[in-house]
Amino acid sequence: MHVEYDGTAFSGWQAQGGSPVRTVQGTLEQVLSLVLQERIALGVAGRTDAGVHAKGQVASFVTRSALPLHRIARALAGLLPPDVAARELAVMPEGFHARFSAIERRYVYRLLDAPRPLLARQAWWPWMRLDAGALTEAYRPLLGEHDFAAFAARDPAKRPPKHGRCRVRRLAFVRWEHGVQLEAHANRFLYHMVRNLVGSATWVTRGLIDPADLPRILAEGKRSAAGPTAPAHGLTFEEVVYKEAYAPIGEHVDGWGRSLS
Amino acid sequence: MHVEYDGTAFSGWQAQGGSPVRTVQGTLEQVLSLVLQERIALGVAGRTDAGVHAKGQVASFVTRSALPLHRIARALAGLLPPDVAARELAVMPEGFHARFSAIERRYVYRLLDAPRPLLARQAWWPWMRLDAGALTEAYRPLLGEHDFAAFAARDPAKRPPKHGRCRVRRLAFVRWEHGVQLEAHANRFLYHMVRNLVGSATWVTRGLIDPADLPRILAEGKRSAAGPTAPAHGLTFEEVVYKEAYAPIGEHVDGWGRSLS
């Protein structure tokens, strides 16, 4: 399923083993288990952090239930709280897994040009204006496959990743209607990576980091040489790209149960 | 000043005489009085209800302070909470008043085509899809000057208005990116009027009100014959139109203090 959520009131995606913390995974698994009358465990493309939003998160599960997909969609629409929704559901071929079948994740971090109360929940006003062209140029050396340890935090809730290598295909600051946004596409992202890239961009803008030093900062891999972590609420997990082999088989419906196939 | 706010956490515009309730007027007057070192009282174009948003609300005040406008703007940007901002400030000619100089108010009520968590704070999902063309047609007899008592609630906090006549210049359901919105332009609006027009549109859609009965419902002026009140969060006060005579004199700055003149 494609899942959209407003991350503000969630402590991130990942369910925290029986603790009463409200997570997206916990909320979805609880409702799905109720609807399908069996214990559902979700796989997911990106385990977003507390406060981070998602427009095109993808989650998958296996069920023995014979309930048609359009009825599952209707039940979810009725039972989920207003800050999370399944926007699409599809039956996928054997072996598909939301996490392991994905080849690229796409994030957007939105920044504002001025304080905008009606946009402030999903975009950050950094008290400065960013130069999209100059920053895209400055970040060009970060494209390709590198160890991004300099831009990663240690996730206290998880084991450290086996390695810090990410293959970054796109890292562009582009103007949107109300400011500048960083579009980041990669096969994987480290903890806080996009937010640290944005925080570092504010330091570049303020002259605290010389753009010419970025390749060295990346190569040395010392977190303390990069900039601060931008707040979670500006970040949205936009999209996931899957291996070509995977296409829906059988029912494919929207969040209201209408056929899309 | 042009004021933008996210109405979610405010009990409407109007300050409630010393009560601890959080209002937009109270928040702005407190900060302005601090910045200008005198007691500031705001006039306003539209006293929006609890939960209603504003993108182009207009408020005016008189001050003896000699503080330049760009410094007032900067101070407001620094002191206001993130859910309200002054987007523009201008020095206006003698006699200008945000409320009494206005000739038209413009509201937009946004409805969704499907549950959308990332849009749910500023648009309503009514569990049905509306037909924009058919509803615009059905509401055509409401254009022009009429008594809109059938679509008005009694505001418990205020004296009832002297009369219910409103000159409605536009009342159109149009498609936006994620659904249908009602655009309502009139010289004035009664309490809950736009929300009741939207609630009635859902009843027309469900077949509970025959569109042919709308002129009679309007003429008879019985609130019970119209539909329910749509929730506040879908409504945004978009814009105010002023008499032509009024244009900024002197300083005119944006919310960050930059000159716009």
Describe what you observe in this structure:
- The structure is a homodimer of 261-residue chains.
- Chain A is α+β, with helices and mostly antiparallel strands.
- Helix content of chain A is 20%, strand content 26%.
- Chain A is built from 5 helices and 10 strands, in the order βαββαββαβββααββ.
- In chain A, strands 1, 2, 3, 4, 5, 6, 7, 8, 9 and 10 form a 10-stranded mixed beta sheet that branches.
- In chain A, strand 2 (43-44) and strand 3 form a beta hairpin.
- In chain A, helix 1 (24-36) packs across helix 2.
- The A-B interface holds A 4-6, 53, 55, 77, 80, 82-85, 87, 114-118, 120-122, 236, 254-256 and B 4-6, 53, 55, 77, 80, 82-85, 87, 114-118, 120-122, 125, 236, 254-256.
